[in-house]
Amino acid sequence: MVRRFWNRCRGTLPLVDGFLAAPLFLLSLTGLVNNGYGMNCLVFMAWSLSLLLPLLLRRTFPRSVFAVVCLVSFAQVVVNVPPLVANVSVLMALYTIAAGHSFRWGLAALAVAEGGGVLAALRFVSGWEDQRYSLLTLTVIVAGVWLLGLHMRTRRAYLRSLEERAARLERERDTEVQVAMAAERARIARELHDVVAHNVSVIVVQADGASYAIDTDTGRARQALETISVTGRQALAEMRRMLGVLRESDDAGPYVPQPGVAQLTELVEQIRDAGLPLDFGVEGVPLEMSEGRQLAVFRIVQEALTNTLKHGGPRASARVLLHYGDDAIELRVTDDGRGAAAVPDGRGHGLLGMRERAAVYGGRVEAGPRPGGGFEVVALIPVREEVRR
């Protein structure tokens, strides 16, 4: 509760400055009670308040407050009013100038405060030895307060630079993530474009075959038309997704069929040839999937195994399991490598790409270190549109 009250009061600078100036006022009252100043009570209060009240605006108008307390202190010297506890307000105002303004302003405030100390020593101290001691003491105090203000100014500037650097790094990280997402979506869009182009090519071939066979072989023509219907629906579904994905306007290369589930065996052999012991298993009855979904499955497995090669360590082994359910296919890629202990390569966009690919079809990807060591990637991708909805 006290911390909450303090945090609320910190937003109002005059309240905080008044709280910091309160001990000076209490010390002044103690001197008045002891009657150590030898002056009228009202005169004492007038001089003390004229030095302490400006401190309420010490950080709101620092230079004006410093000028006011210095002028009041100079008036004390002129009318021969002895130094008061409230004259410490000059040091507080000097600290504020040194900590919150440029070096030139701090140096000017130091010169004014030092000049005031010289005048006070010459005015209120008699005897050369006592004056010299008083001058030395006041100089040390004024210089110490000024150096403390400079130190706080440097520290605050350093902390501000750290905060700005942290904010800049966070913005750069967010920008890098956005760029990676855009690049991955562009890659997905190119691949989906290839899938749709391949489907359209199949439709054209089947249509040509149906046109030739319609008079001589009605059954074959009907079969070709059914193939056209199925392929056309798949192509339309893939095209709708493609329009929802960002694509960079670059050369996509020749339109060729992309890898799918059938090419996972070749991928497994390539990974084994690269030196990673790998088990590959399939559970359930394989389901018919569009080429886009098959491509997503292939890329997710490829990215997961690539991460194992990079970060698993020299003695790691992996296992890939495809489980066909009634409405979805589950991919599970596990390894017994270093897992969370692996040193990141500074990029970290592979998992992001896998999640983007699964999200296109309404699926999800979960990845993270395994409790017993190693790393695990689990992806669930629906195989039909009604499941996705």
Quick structural overview:
Residues 292-385 form the Histidine kinase/HSP90-like ATPase domain. The chain has 389 residues and is α+β, with helices and mostly antiparallel strands.
What keyword list fits this structure?
9% strand; coiled coil; alpha+beta; 12 helices; Heat Shock Protein 90; 389 residues; 5 strands; 3 domains; Single alpha-helices involved in coiled-coils or other helix-helix interfaces; 5-stranded mixed beta sheet
Largest sheet: number of strands, sense, barrel closure:
5 strands, mixed
What order do the strands of the largest sheet run in, or round the barrel if closed?
1-2-3-5-4
Order of helices and strands: HHHHHHHHHEHEEHEEH
CATH structural class of the largest domain? Alpha Beta
Label the structural class: alpha+beta
Q: Specify the CATH homologous superfamily of the largest domain.
A: Histidine kinase-like ATPase, C-terminal domain
Strand content: 5-15%
**Coarse shape:** rod-shaped
State the helical fraction: 55-70%
- Total domain count: 3
Low-confidence stretches: 246-255, 343-347
Oligomer: single chain
> How many individual β-strands?
5
Domain Histidine kinase/HSP90-like ATPase: 292-385
Protein name: histidine kinase
InterPro entries: DUF7134, HATPase_C_sf, HATPase_dom, Sensor_HK_TwoCompSys, Sig_transdc_His_kin_sub3_dim/P
Catalytic activity: ATP + protein L-histidine = ADP + protein N-phospho-L-histidine
